[in-house]
Amino acid sequence: IIMSDGKEVGTIDGTYSKDEVLDAKLSMDEFPLGMINGFIPMQLFGFRGYGDGTLSVKGKLDRPEVDGEVYLDSSYIFSQPYGVEMRFANDPITIKGSKLLFENFLMFAINDSPLDVSGAFDFSNLDRMMLNVKMQARNFLLIDSKETPRSETYGKTYVNFFGTMQGPVDNLKMLGRLDVLGSTDMTYVMRDAILTT
Fold it and tell me: Which residues of the chain have pLDDT under 70?
């Protein structure tokens, strides 16, 4: 049983054998996505909101086979240092053969302009996780924040964006076009840097 703030938010049923093979089922009921944030290095970004659904996990831990669906509810990805916050569409995310599939998956800026994501994130080999997605957005409010002690950027940044991101997650290649719109008013804070010519 997985608990959060005294409430049951999930269960894990299954077996883990001595030869390190897992055969388990994870069921989530209003599972707080914020529980994932402790595993994100330097808290560069984080999640909030809830997920419901069921995942099956089979195989060795370094090459798990994961299948299932997770339904997102009031879910966001955010970055305090960069002043970014995007809301996920309340749609199911499908995982097949340890591939997270994005089929016209929408993420919304604060001005409700959508970023459309299509493609897949393959985590079947945890030593070489692969991403292959296409993204597009128009009049997208990418940054909307006030200055704080942790700010790297603040203000408002409006963009049009069309691009792709491909490759292993530790060496991603991004191609595309980013048009910064005239309605942008943003400040970038340069910290602990030596100014050069």
Answer: 39, 41-44, 191-197
Residue 15 carries which side chain, given as an amino acid letter? T
Q: Which residue has the tokens 């894990």?
A: 12
Overall pTM > 0.85: no
How far, CA to CA in Å, does 191 sit from each of 120, 186, 187, 194?
A: 35, 16, 13, 9
pLDDT in tens, 165-184: 999 888 889 999 999 999 99
In terms of DSSP bridges, do strands 153-168 and 130-145 run parallel, antiparallel, or are they unpaired? antiparallel
Q: Evaluate whether 98 touches 123 at the Cβ level (below 8 Å).
A: yes
CA angle, corner 88, sides to 87 and 94, nearest 5? 170
The CA distance from 115 to 74, in Å, is 16
Distance between CA atoms of 118 and 91, rounded to whole angstroms? 14
Residue 135's Cβ-side half-sphere holds a number of Cα atoms within 13 Å equal to 23
Nearest to 118, CA basis, from 105, 107, 131, 130: 105
**Tokens 């128009």, residue located:** 138
Amino acid at 153: T
Question: 30 — phi, psi (to 5°)?
Answer: 55, 45
